[in-house]
Design brief:
The complex is a heterodimer of chains A (568) and B (443).
Chain A (H helix, E strand, L loop, with lengths): L23 H11 L4 E6 L5 H9 L9 E5 L5 H14 L8 E2 L2 E2 L2 H13 L3 E5 L4 H4 L3 H14 L6 E8 L7 H6 L7 E4 L4 H13 L5 E3 L4 H13 L9 H16 L8 E3 L1 H5 L7 H17 L8 H8 L12 E2 H8 L7 H13 L3 E3 L5 E4 L2 H9 L3 H18 L10 H7 L11 H98 L6 H30 L2
Parallel strand pairs in A: 1-6, 1-7, 2-5, 5-6, 8-9
Antiparallel strand pairs in A: 3-4, 10-12, 11-12
Helix pairs in contact in A: 1-2, 3-4, 8-9, 12-13, 19-20
Chain B lengths: L8 E5 L2 E8 L21 E4 L11 H10 L5 H10 L12 H14 L3 H11 L3 H28 L3 H4 L4 H11 L7 H17 L13 H5 L3 H19 L5 H14 L7 E11 L7 E8 L11 E6 L8 E4 L7 E2 L4 E3 H4 L7 E8 L4 E6 L13 E4 L2 H15 L6 H31 L5
Parallel strand pairs in B: 2-3
Antiparallel strand pairs in B: 1-2, 4-5, 4-7, 5-6, 7-8, 9-10, 10-11, 11-12
The chains are: A alpha/beta (568), B alpha+beta (443).
Chain lengths: 568, 443
């Protein structure tokens, strides 16, 4: 029976091994790593085909007795999802005796693993897909609990292997995980975007597949490959293209050739058919926009127009803030969109149905839960959001994360956060009662803290005032004391000056007295000399000279003292 | 057969047909080969009409008989049989899932060797074709394990003993070393018998002391060899007309085979990853052995690596067969290798020597996942004496001749050259074995 070889945006699984091409090297490398470590990391950019590589490429290497794959998506909580997946695989059967793991009694996840193993006797491969969701949507509690679970799993006696698939931009978030589980990054594989060689492998593989209903003109394969590659690359100077673009493009090409939506007819791809496709642009964005437009037209009636904006609004909840896909239950979607303008419950249900048929949405394992078929669609939806929409989503996440924590450990919203929430409050529909209450409690807490703060500030201000007053008073007192002291000093100085002047005058008078005295003595001595005591004449002359010198010195001193006395 | 025209279907697959036959609550004793234009049956599945699901091999017969056969070698099994099973249910305990699952688990964990892995696979298989392929693989690998153990033990004997092997016996042994394809089960069965005879003649201790209990049979009726040959006959028949025996038949013959070799439950296999050396100043010398146990259901903390202090070293990269104590293990290298150890990787990946292409100077090893009738050659390990390995050999000779014996060049770039050298050692050791037995080695 002929098979349509393109999977559009869906991942390949173990039933698609015959149409999965272009990843032989990666499959071989991953297969080898499985035998070298109990935990593997597969990472790469969004849309490079990590999930397909594991679920189809790697799975295809194993016989059924060597491969029991259990895929775990985070959902609302990775730990409960893990538990649910294990339970669904038979992990919750009651044992008749206590099981042991090297002497330890098994409980919880260990017991579940053992039960799953005893039901199957196959190595269990726990595949954690879209692991970045744990860090985008999860909180610290959840992450810590998960790490503990993994540490436990890696010590079990039963054969269990863990494969973690994560977008490479979230590798840094694995820091704490690696500290707790050092072997986490020991074996890792980067899945790279498609280069031209891999695109060639895909096309050659499809062409050589016996049951494929799509063929490529043999002698034009190289030209067609190059043509497709260059169209998808566009103006970018890149050596790679994104895989989902290739898938969507090939599907589009098929429809162009056959016009067969059921995808049953045979198609032959030639260079001419490729050229006829024209410019590609952003294949995915164009695809999504055209689908939205088509649905909008489909749902519009004469009386009521359903705008493309409305359709985008219905799609928006399926994309996270970061532009990754977010699975949602239908009832949660209806709740989120409830009350929005022009959006009724019927319209939402119809749109979800349309999206599913047009392969924009997939239903997940959980009943009535849907998600986008690919992350690249989520990115496209996220890029269409306005700043207001983004703010609203950020607020929603803030509220959700805060309230998700146990009340005993929960923190109140800060004033800054409340100021952020408040302007959007009117647009925040469908908050749960708990969320509303917590916002209100936070508001009251902030208000009460504000009042407390004000009171404290007033108290402090008063204290400051008192202190300032006291200081001022002391300053005034000190000032007057200083002036008083200055005056006293001045008075003392003037009195000192006066005393000094008096003393100087006294010296002056004394000097005058000495001068007179010396004068008299000089006269007397001169007279004495003249009376002819020749033997003492020299001595008398000497004494008279000495006295004259002293008189001169006294005169000098007298002049100095007069100068001092005169100084102001 | 159901009269519903939809129920009995011949579904056209790309390589043949699948026949879907509905039977009422029973397994078919034999499968009729129905051919259409495009080939034979590749996958015949029997569906239970009521539940419309494929009947899995239940392995009740295998579990019951084998677990009872190995109880003398496993205290846990003995305890299970004596204490866990209720007396009232003893006659057919294997019909109850709670006992059966426990028995399966015990069976798998009791064989701390490659057999444990194989038992896990066959118990976990849910397709007849896989069951058939696995039964062939278990038989062959088990016989290889026996033969390689004998050959390894013989190799360790003094030269004078080896020279006493008769030309006829040597001729049979030679095929093991000089073969362009992997020998079949019958060859290994015959080789096993020959090796037992050699050991008897040379008065050597068997690598498995329990072989003494098989001596009479091997020298007389050869019931065991007969079982091996019937298993091989299934293969031949399938090769001729793609007829598979029923699951019942496969299970019964395989059970007989494994029950006869029940003593293998007493033997462990270990891969020696590394031997370190500690001697601090005047403290006594200690060797740190890093090794991994084979088999399933062993604790995987630290990737299942174990460490122990020993007074002596051991052959590195050895795969040991141990009955009692680790240091007394029989080295099975290079007939059985751990390719992960040679590539400096954790965990264990056991490969069995398959064949040696004399002309191409190539040794080929198959890993445990290689099952007959399937195209899965990618995991084969091929060691080829090519130019690159010859260069490494020359480097090594030069290193040994030098005074400082500096191997930095080999260890550089994450030791890629060193890892290739390790593979080359496999090849060289194989040549040594050839020389020991036949006085000839590759030039």
């Amino acid at each position: 029976m002929k098979k349509y070889p393109f999977k559009f945006l869906e991942s390949y699984n173990n039933k698609d091994t015959d149409i999965f091409f272009g990843r032989d090297q990666e499959i071989k490398a991953l297969y080898e790593m499985v035998f070298q470590s109990s935990i593997l990391l597969v990472y790469g950019a969004s849309g490079t085909g990590k999930t397909s590589l594991i679920q189809c490429g790697l799975a295809g290497k194993f016989k059924s007795y060597d491969w029991l794959a259990l895929t775990v998506r985070r959902g609302n909580n990775i730990n409960t999802s893990l538990e649910r997946v294990l339970n669904d695989a038979g992990g919750n059967q009651a044992g008749e005796e206590e099981e042991t793991n090297g002497g330890k009694i098994l409980t919880g996840i260990s017991k579940q693993i053992r039960n799953v193993y005893l039901n199957n006797f196959k190595p269990i491969y726990l595949i954690f897909d879209q692991f970045e969701e744990l860090y985008i949507l999860g909180n610290r509690d959840e992450q810590d609990k998960f790490i503990l679970a993994i540490k436990e799993l890696l010590t079990l006696e039963q054969p269990v292997k863990l494969i973690i698939s994560i977008r490479e931009e979230y590798l840094g978030y694995l820091y704490d995980f690696e500290r707790a589980v050092p072997q986490l990054l020991r074996k890792k594989l980067r899945v790279e975007p498609m280069n031209i060689d891999k695109v060639t492998d895909v096309l050659v593989g499809i062409n050589n597949h016996k049951n494929s209903n799509v063929h490529i003109k043999d002698d034009e394969i190289a030209a067609i490959t190059e043509g497709i590659f260059n169209r998808l690359k566009g103006a970018k100077k890149s050596l790679t293209i994104q895989l989902p673009y290739l898938q969507v493009f090939l599907d589009k090409l098929y429809i162009e050739i056959t016009n067969d939506e059921s995808r049953e007819q045979d198609a032959l791809i030639t260079n001419d058919t490729l050229v006829g496709m024209g410019d590609i642009g952003d294949v995915l964005r164009d695809f999504l926009e055209s689908q939205v437009k088509s649905i909008s037209e489909n749902k519009s009636t004469a009386g009521k127009i359903v705008s493309t904006d409305t359709i985008w609004k219905i799609l928006s909840p399926f994309s996270t803030l970061e532009g990754t896909k977010q699975p949602i239950l239908l009832k949660d979607l209806l709740e989120q969109l409830n009350g929005k303008e022009n959006i009724t419950e019927t319209l939402v249900k119809q749109c979800v149905e349309e999206f599913s048929q047009r392969r924009i949405l997939n239903s997940t394992d959980t009943a009535e839960q849907y998600e986008l078929t690919h992350d690249t669609l989520a990115k496209t939806i996220a890029e269409r959001r306005t700043d207001e929409d983004i703010a609203l989503l950020e607020i929603r996440r803030l509220i959700k994360n805060q309230v998700a924590t146990n009340e005993n450990a929960r923190e109140y919203f800060t004033e800054k956060q409340l100021n952020f929430i408040e302007p959007q409050k009117a647009r925040l529909e469908n908050l749960s009662k708990e969320e509303e209450e917590w916002i209100e409690k936070s508001r009251r807490k902030v208000a009460s803290e504000k009042i407390q703060k004000e009171k404290l500030q007033r108290k402090q201000l008063n204290r400051a005032r008192i202190v300032a007053g006291v200081i001022l008073l002391l300053a005034i007192v000190a000032f007057f004391a200083a002036i008083d002291s200055y005056n006293k000093t001045k008075l003392a100085k003037s009195q000192t000056d006066l005393a000094q002047k008096r003393l100087l005058k006294t010296y002056l008078l004394e000097i005058e007295r000495y001068k007179k005295d010396i004068e008299i003595k000089t006269i007397n001595l001169s007279s004495f000399k003249s009376f002819g005591a020749s033997d003492i004449a020299d001595r008398v002359t000497f004494t008279i000279d000495s006295l004259n010198n002293i008189t001169k010195k006294l005169a000098k001193s007298s002049d100095s003292l007069k100068g001092l006395i005169k100084e102001p | 057969m159901s009269e519903d025209p939809i129920d009995n279907n011949i579904i056209n697959h790309d390589e043949g047909n699948e026949v879907v036959m509905h039977v009422e609550n029973q397994q078919a004793k034999s499968i009729l080969n129905i051919e259409k234009n495009e080939g034979g049956i590749h996958n015949t599945n029997i569906y239970n009409t009521i539940e419309r699901k494929e009947i899995k091999p239940a392995n009740k017969y295998l579990c019951r008989n084998l677990i009872e056969a190995i109880q003398e070698y496993s205290p846990k099994v003995k305890n299970f049989l004596e204490m866990t099973i209720d007396d009232s249910e003893r006659a057919n305990w294997e019909t109850q899932d709670s006992y059966l699952n426990k028995a399966k688990d015990l069976l798998i964990s009791s064989y701390a060797s490659v057999l444990g892995d194989f038992l896990r696979k066959i118990i976990g298989s849910d397709k007849q074709r896989d069951y058939f392929g696995l039964s062939q693989a278990i038989t062959k690998r088990t016989l290889q394990l026996l033969c390689f153990s004998f050959v390894s033990s013989l190799w360790d004997q003094p030269k004078e003993k080896v020279q006493q092997i008769t030309p006829e016996q040597l001729k049979q042994l030679k095929k093991l070393f000089y073969t362009g394809v992997e020998p079949n089960i019958s060859y290994y069965a015959d080789l096993f018998r020959t090796l037992v005879t050699i050991f008897g003649q040379l008065q050597l201790e068997y690598p498995f002391e329990e072989i003494k209990t098989m001596e009479d049979d091997l020298n007389g009726e050869n019931a065991f060899i007969g079982i091996c040959k019937s298993i091989d006959a299934f293969r031949i028949k399938f090769g001729e007309n793609e007829t598979m025996p029923s699951i019942d038949e496969i299970e019964k013959t395989l059970t007989s085979f494994l029950v006869t070799l029940n003593f293998l439950a007493a033997y462990k296999m270990v891969s020696v990853k590394d031997i370190g050396y500690e001697s601090v100043r005047k403290n006594s010398i200690q060797f740190v052995h890093t090794y991994s146990l084979l088999g399933v259901n062993k604790t995987m903390e630290g990737d299942g690596q174990k460490y122990s202090y020993q007074d002596t070293g051991k052959n590195t990269d050895a795969v040991l067969l141990i009955r009692d104590k680790y240091p007394d293990g029989l080295n099975l290298f290079p007939f059985i290798i751990d390719i992960n150890a040679l590539r400096d990787q954790r965990l264990v990946k056991i490969c069995f020597y398959a064949w040696n292409d004399e002309n191409d100077k190539t040794l080929v090893y198959y890993d445990l996942n290689k099952i007959p009738f399937e195209d899965n050659d990618e995991s084969d390990v091929t060691i080829e004496k090519n130019k690159e390995l010859e260069e490494i050999e020359n480097d090594l000779i030069a290193i040994y001749k030098s005074s400082d014996r500096d191997i930095t060049g080999l260890k550089a770039n994450d030791g890629e050259k060193y890892k290739k050298m390790k593979l080359f050692e496999v090849y060289n050791t194989f040549q040594d074995a050839k020389e020991t037995f036949f006085g000839i080695a590759d030039s």
